[in-house]
Structures are given as C-alpha cells and as structure tokens.
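Team,

Forwarding the record for the chain on the shared tracking sheet. I've put the sequence and predicted structure together so nobody has to dig through attachments.
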Amino acid sequence: MLRTMIGIGLTLIFVLGYAVYSNTVESEYYGYNTSNEPEPLTLNQDDSGISEWYVSTNSPITWINVSVAGAPVDSVLRVQADGVSWYHSPLLGENKDYPFNCEGDGDFSDLVDTCAYSSTHELPVPDSGDVVIRGIVSSVLPIEGLGYLQADDLNEAEDLASDLIYGESGVVTWRIGVYDSDGNSTPSDNVVITADITVHDLVDVKEFEIDPIEESVYSLATLIGCFTLMLIVPLIIYFSAIYKAKKDESVRLDAPSLD
C-alpha cells in the first residue's frame, strides 16, 4: 500500500509541476488594465433660475455619481440618460461588502439586492436637503479597472481588450433636475450640484503569469497534506487492529485451562 501511495504521489507531483510550467511558459489568458479614476462633469443650464442641468458624454463609463446639496425638502432628484439605460439602487456603492447582482438574474437573485435598470432614476430628497444617486452605466467594463480575457497571442489580446472597452462608448445626454411633488422644476437658489463619471481607457495588456516556485510550493504542501490525511486513518486502523489482536491473544494465553 505504501509503495502504491508513493507512486501515486510522485505521479501527481509530476502532473502538477507540468501544469504550473505550461501555464507559466505559454498562457492563453491575458490581463488588461484600464484607467479607473472619477472625472468631474461640467454641467450646463438653459435657465440658471431653475434646477435643471444637462451634459453630454461619449466615453466608456462604469460609474456615474450625482449629488445635490441644499435642495428643497420633499423634492425629488431625477437623473435621465438619453440614449442608454443604466443600473441604480439606493444602496449601490454604500457598502462594498454588500452583495449586489445588478443584472437581476441568476440563482441567488432572491438573496441579494438587485438594481433597477432604466434610462431614468430618481430619489426623494431627505430633510437634510442632500442626496446622492449612484449608478452603473456598463456592466461589461471592469469595475476595479482590471479584467481578463482569452486570446492566442498578445496582439489579439490587445485588439480584443480595445474592442471590449471602446465598444462601450456612446453619446449619452444626461439630464439632471430637482422637482417638486407636482413634477415642476424647483428654483436653483442655494442648490449645489456635482456630478462625476468613471471613464475607462485602456492602459496596457499583459500575459497572465504565475510564479512557478510559489505555485510548486503550494502544490507540494497541498499534496503532502492530502497524503498525510490519507495515511493517518489507515495506519490508525491498522495499528488498532494489531493491538486488538495482540490483546486478544494475550487474554487467550492467560485464560485458565479447563482441564
């Protein structure tokens, strides 16, 4: 049994070593980095006396954040995108550890908070007069600025990454306003509004690499741990059986004769 397990262990070590080597030398996966910093938007107004603004964008966007301070109580902040629908939830961005499934489908859709998908979203203004609307425009772009893809070589990976990122560009006109309960625009006196978007531009594309020494150490440690567990239980059973057999034999030899 011991010889068999040693042979199996050496075979697994060879297989794991080859897997680490092959993925290190020639990987089909590439990582691409994008810019991932918020950029402020310069908002325009047709009438400076009312709380309505607009701005046009033509970039690959993930996040949009619109905040208003000093708005009238019981009014509503509304953000409308002409040309695209986007995701929004009042809790989006508040807690990074909170589970979200903005696309709304999947096996765990009943267990996580989902986002509304529409071209227009709005939130009521609380007593403080301050409110923030956060939304995700594209769920395809990497939220954290790092994504992975599969390609035959670096040139193909760069083309795929560029198509993926800049394919999400499009002209969008954002219309932002503060409205009363009747849907009328409120005066812009004392109302301060800011808006920013997170734009993604391709920075670089690199072949996915792993450290062969580190991965080999991890693989060997895992293998040793597994075989240790596999050996301990059979050995305990084996020595327990030997001990019980010797004890039974000792009891049998010490038993008084019936003659």
